[in-house]
Design a protein that fits this description.
18% of the residues lie in helices and 30% in strands. It is built from 7 helices and 26 strands. α1 crosses α6 (299-317), α3 runs parallel beside α6 and α4 (226-238) packs across α5 (258-264). It starts with 5 loop residues before the first helix and ends with a strand.
Length: 403
């Protein structure tokens, strides 16, 4: 089977990836969830004209010059409307958020007045409408202020509450199950024996999925047998996972049994080799409604492939409007060699010059097993297939890695 281009592989993974079902959740549970419906205001904000400052509600015509003296006829506090009309030569003490009394059309701030008993003198002339928040200046009943498909930020929750929504309709979180394979893997905190390594991939994969809004299931590490691998696949299916991620066993060695086990369980594979570096031995298929992505075992390949393919899939199933990563342009911080038929994703440090220009400097070593260099990188430099050698200062496309 020929190597599949990256764009084709991503298209295959996203094919039919419609948003999952919706559910109603309380506002406190809606942070970073994706809206399943537009949200319209249930009320007008503010519902009436209100004072924006502490001061006095007056008729602007009565306070147009500094010789004015006005009689104070009462007080208006937030939540306690004034029951009288402001007449000629009158004023009412008012506090921020107080409803503007009938007859008044301006507020003179407290600092611009001098009070003597029930009379005030002004030190700055009033202007009609000044220091008043008109009814509906923020929004009006029926205004759609939150659109379906946005990922709710903290400010969005405050807005939804102000619009009088105690709950919101959001898409269900995708459930991502992670299964590692490999007799050589031992858990962190143990002492590896000869030829053993500490298992690390799953921690990054689950964190990456959770950061995108998914729920995760840790299926642990399966031994290098068909029986153990198929047991893990079945546990993922029985858990109701929307996505199964396998890590390791995706290449063509005699002990790489993931492809064999997936096919034995009825998974139809769309591809199992991609024209990219790192990450050529990657698989994708489906088992009923569950989508399967088989990642390479090398930790850098595993992470880069998950970032490029798993993240957009989670976003699509979550109902997000913005599914794809955003490419940016940077200047190379060092020379880059010519490329072969595989699309390269070079781990790179990203810096911004004083003029705003981004500089992307590939890290010293690009080996797919070197986690230290991955952790030091802030982005990926994309080198298309058969790209010629590029000199320092050349323009390149980059993807930012999560902070």
């Amino acid at each position: 089977m020929a190597l599949m281009p990256v764009a084709d592989a991503l298209a295959a993974i996203l094919d039919g990836a419609d948003p999952l079902g919706e559910e109603m959740v309380a506002l406190d549970a809606a942070f970073h969830r994706t809206l399943a419906r537009d949200v319209a205001a249930r009320r007008t904000q503010p519902p009436q004209a209100m004072s924006a400052m502490d001061g006095y509600a007056v008729r602007a015509a009565d306070a147009a010059d500094l010789s004015a003296r006005l009689s104070v006829i009462g007080e208006v506090a937030a939540g306690r409307p004034f029951g009288r009309t402001i007449g000629k030569g009158e004023a009412a003490r008012i506090f921020t958020g107080g409803v503007i009394p009938d007859g008044a059309d301006a507020v003179i701030i407290q600092e611009d007045t001098r009070r003597n008993g029930d009379t005030i003198a002004i030190t700055e002339a009033a202007t009609k409408g000044r220091h008043i928040r008109p009814a509906g200046v923020d929004f009006r009943e029926g205004d759609v202020l939150l659109a379906r498909g946005i990922r709710l930020a903290d400010r969005d929750l405050s807005l939804a509450a102000a619009m009088n929504h105690p709950q919101l309709a959001v898409y269900r979180r995708p459930k991502v199950a992670v299964l590692a394979t490999g007799d050589e893997l031992v858990m962190p905190g143990t002492t590896p024996g000869p030829a053993q390594i500490v298992y690390s991939n799953g921690y990054a994969l689950r964190a990456l999925a959770r950061a995108e809004g998914a729920d995760t299931i840790d299926l642990g590490v399966a031994a290098d047998t068909v029986a153990a691998t198929t047991d893990g696949i079945r546990r993922a299916r029985d858990s109701g996972a929307d996505i199964l991620i396998t890590s390791g066993g995706a290449s063509v060695g005699d002990h790489d049994l993931v492809k064999q086990s997936l096919e034995a369980e009825g998974v139809t594979l769309a591809f199992w080799r991609i024209a990219m570096r790192p990450g050529k031995p990657m698989m994708h298929g489906r088992l009923g409604a569950m989508r399967v992505i088989g990642l390479p075992g090398n930790p850098v390949s595993s992470y880069v492939c998950a970032y490029l393919f798993l993240v957009p899939l989670i976003r699509a199933l979550s109902g997000r409007k913005a599914v794809h990563h955003t490419r940016e342009t940077a200047l190379l911080g060092r020379d880059a060699a010519a490329n072969d038929q595989r699309e390269d994703y070079l781990r790179a440090r990203i810096e911004k010059r004083r003029d705003g220009q981004l500089i992307a400097t590939p890290v010293d070593r690009q080996d797919s097993s070197l986690l230290g260099f991955l952790a030091a990188a802030q982005g990926l430099v994309i080198r298309p297939p058969f790209a010629p050698a590029a000199a320092k200062g050349s323009e390149v496309d980059i993807l930012r890695l999560p902070e």
